[in-house]
Fold:
Amino acid sequence: MQDVTTEKKEFTPTIVAFCCNWCSYAGADLAGSSRLTYPANVKIIRVPCSCRVNPMFVLKAFQQGADGVILCGCHPGDCHYVTGNYYTRRRMALLYSFLNYMGIEKERTRVEWVSAAEGARFAAVMNDFVKQVTDLGENKRLTDLRVKEGE
Amino acid sequence: MQRIGVFICWCGSNIAATVDVEKVAEVIKNEPGVVFSTNYQYMCSENGQQLIKQAIKEHNLTGIVIGACSPRMHEATFRKAAEAAGLNPYMVEVANIREHCSWIHKDMEEATEKAVILVRTAIAKVKLNAPLTAGESPVIKRALVIGGGIAGIQAALDIADAGFEVDIVEKNSTIGGRMAQIDKTFPTLDCSACILTPKMVDCAQHEKIDILSYSEIEEVKGFVGNFSVKIRRKARYVDETKCTGCKLCMEKCPSKKGLNEFNMNLNTRTAIHIPFAQAIPNVAVIDASQCLKMKTGKCGICQKFCDVGAIDFEQKDTFIDRQYGAIVVATGFKPIDLDNFNEYGYHDNKDVVTSLELERLMNAAGPTNGVLLRPSDGKHPKVITFIQCVGSRDTSGCGKPYCSKICCMYTAKHAMLIREKYPDTEVHVFYIDVRTPGKNYDEFFRRAVEQYGVDYIKGMVGKVYNENGKLMVQGSNLIDNEQITIESDLVVLAAAIEPEPSVRKIATLLTTSIDTNNFLTESHAKLCPVESPTAGVFLAGVCQGPKDILETVSQASACAAKVIGLLVKDKLKSNPCVAMPDEMMCNGCSQCANVCAYGAISYVDKEFRLGGGKTEVRRVASVNPAVCQGCGACTVTCPSGAMDLKGFSSKQIMSEVEAICKM
Amino acid sequence: MTKQERIDNMMRLSGTDVRKCMKCGKCSGRCPAFKDMDIKPHQFVSMLGQGKIDQLLESKAIWNCLACMACVERCPRGVAPAAVVEAVRDTVVRAQGANGLKAEDIPPIVDEFIPQQLLVSAYRKYNK
Structure:
C-alpha cells in the first residue's frame, strides 16, 4: 500500500541487469512465462554473452545513477561461446573488488549464473538482489550529479 | 535525421491486461526521433506485420521498435517483415514488454511505467543501429572423417552415398577400430566381423571414399564450409600402391617378438605385419622400433622376398593438405589402464584379464583360435568370475566418475557365450547394478540368468589373490549379507572405457570443447547431440560419451545427415553481428586473438597514410566474419578500444544503460 | 539432544558423506574382520544414513573393526566406512565417560607404519 500523500517516496533502487542471450535472458523469459514476480525496477539489457559486458558499462551505469548492477551468464562450462563466462568471472572479480575499494559497496554488484531452465532461480536472484540493494540505500558515490539534477 | 516507428503489441490480453498499451504508444510519440507510434492486438499476425510494412513505407521509417514478446520469440519474424518493406532487417529492435514486464508485474501503473522505459531503451539502441548484411561463404563439397572405427565408417558411407567426397583419416594401419577386435555383438550374438568387414570393404570400394590409413591430423585452419587440414601420412615403410597383401613378408620376418596390439598383447607378431586378415587397406606396415633392418641395418629379408618391391626402408612421413566443408570426429575409446586397481591383481596374475582381452581369447581369429584357454597355462578354465564396474562410477579419483554403459551388456554376453560353449563351466558375476535399458537388452540379460544359469552376485570384490595357483576372489554378497571367496580359474574385469587419448589434441586443433573426462562436448545435450559447439564439426561415437555399437551407428548416421545438409548448400549465410576492429586504433597487441575461442582473429600488415606523403606499415587485427560467432570477448579485452561488435556495439549498450538509468 | 541432533552429530564426527555410497559392498568385500562383525561395514554406512544409530551404538562390531582402513582405501565413491565405525566407537566411549587413552600411556617407541587409528582403537579396547 503506497501512501500517495507523503511527499517522500519509498526508495526504489534502479537496477541494471546484463543478461546473456543464450542462458540468462532465456531464464528471464522463463521467469516471465512462469509468471514469477520480481520488482519492476530491474531492467534487463540483452548481450550476446556475459563476456560482452565491458567494465565500462558497469561504471557507466553507476555514473548514470544506477543503484545496483547484476550480470548474469551461463553456468561455468555451459557457455554458448565455450569460454566467455570464464572471462566474465575474472573481469568482474577484478572490477567489483576495485569498485568496493572506491567505496561502492560490493553488495551493489553481483555475478550470477542462471541457465535457460532456471526461471525460478532468476526471479529468486532478482528478488534477493533488489532487497540487498534497497537495504543499502541510494548509490551516491559515483553518480554524476548532473544526471539526478532534474529530479 | 532518424525516423523511428514504434509498434506496441497487446498480445491479446497478455500484455494489454497489465500494461496500458495505448498510453505507452501515446507517451512514446513525444520521444525525439519518433515519427510514428501505434498499438495493435497482435503484431506478429499477418495483419500486424502488414501494419508494420505499411508504416515503414508511408512514413519512410529508418528504424523500428516493436514492444512485444521476447526477441527470442519473434525477432526473426519482425526482421523479415521489415526486409519485405525495404528496411534493413537489422534496423529492428524488440522491447520485451511481455516476459520481462506484463507477465511478472501485477500493478498496471508500475508495469506501464516499466514498459515505457523498456521501449525508450530500445529506441536509444535502434538510433545507433547500422544496416548489416549477412555475409556469405562458399562450401567445399568434401567431408573429413577422423577415425576409421564403426562410427567413422558409417558416417563416411552415408555421406559418400549422398554423392559427396569423404576422406577417412585413421591413425592405425587399418580401419575397423574396436569393433574389429570384438567377437560377438549383443543383443543378437551375431559375429562382429561378419557385419563389420562388409562395411569396411564398401568403404574401400566406394569411389567417393578415400581411406588415409596410418595418418594423423596435424593442423586445422579455416571454418565451417572451408576447413583446411594438414594430414601427416606416417611412414609405413611399405608402398601402399604396390603391396598386394600376400603376407610372404610376415612368414619370412625373423623379428617375431613384437607384442600384438590387435590381440591386446596376448601373443606376438612380426615386425612387418598386417594387423588382421580382413584389414583395409590390406597392406603391411613395419614397426620401426622392432625391425632389425631399421635398428641394426642388417636384415632386409622382407625386401628380398617381396615380389612387387613394395618395401622401402627409406620412406619418410609425408604431408598432404586438403580442404573440407565439414568434419566428423569419431575417435573412439580405449579401456582404462588398471594401474590404480591392484586389488584385482591384474598386473600380477596372467589369468586376470580385461573383457576386451577375453573378447580376443574367444575370437576364432584370436591367439587361441577361439578356444577359451587361460593365458597362464593354456588350460580350460572351469570357474570364471566376472567383476563389473572396474573403474566405472568411481569418484575416489582412481577411476572414472561415469557409467561406461556397455559393460553390463557385454558381461552378460560373455557369461552367456561361455555357458553355451562350455556348459561345464561355472560363471559368477559380481555386480553393483545391472543396467540394461534398450530394446531387447533386459530380456538378453535375463536369459543369461534364467536360461544359462549364470550366477549374478549383488556385491563387489574386495580383493583377488593367488593361493596355490588358484585365483581367490573375495567379495561381498549383499543380498545374503555374507563375505564370500570364490576359487576361480579366470577372472574377467569389466574395465571402464575412456575416450582415445589422442582426442585431446584433435579437440585443440578443431577449437572444439572437451570435458574433464576427455569427452567432446555436444552443442546441446538434448537438441543438438551430434553437433559440436564449433560450427561444421560433428561428433560420432564414444568420443562424445559412452555408447554401444547401435547408438554409435545411429549417431554416425545422424552426423552424416547433418554433414549432407551442410554440403548441399552452395553458400553459407553468416551472422552479421560479428566483431570488427577499428584499424586506426588497433595496435596489433594480439590480446583479442588470445581470447577468441574460435580462432577468428588473425593479423595482417596494412599500409596507412601518415600525411605528408609518408606511409607506415602496421600490424592490425582482422576478423574473419565467417568464423566469428559474435560473443564479444575480444571487444572487452581490447586495451585500445579498437574492437567493437556489430549489432551490440559499446555505444549501443552504453545508450541503453543511459536510457534505463535516466528515469 | 534430540535424536536428529545425535544423528547429525555422528555424521559430523565421522567426517564422511554417507549419501555418496552407491551400495556396491566393496567395503564388506574387502574387510578382513568381516566374519567377526555383527553389523557389517556397508551396513554401518547404510544404517547411519537411515538414522538407525541406537542399533549401531549397541553393535559389538565396533570392537572388532581393526581400523585397517582397507574399506576406506577401496571405496570407489570416497566414502569412509571405517570413519563411521570410529564415530560410533567415539560416541560409545564418550557416553561411558571413560576415555581409555592417556598421552603418557603411549609407549615411547611407536612404529610409524602402524595406522594411528589402530593404536587409538587398540588402546580403547584393552584399557577398558
Q: What stands out?
A: Chain B has a mean pLDDT of 94. The longest strand of chain B covers residues 601-611. Chain B has five domains: 4-126, 142-234+317-332+500-567, 248-305, 334-498, 579-646.
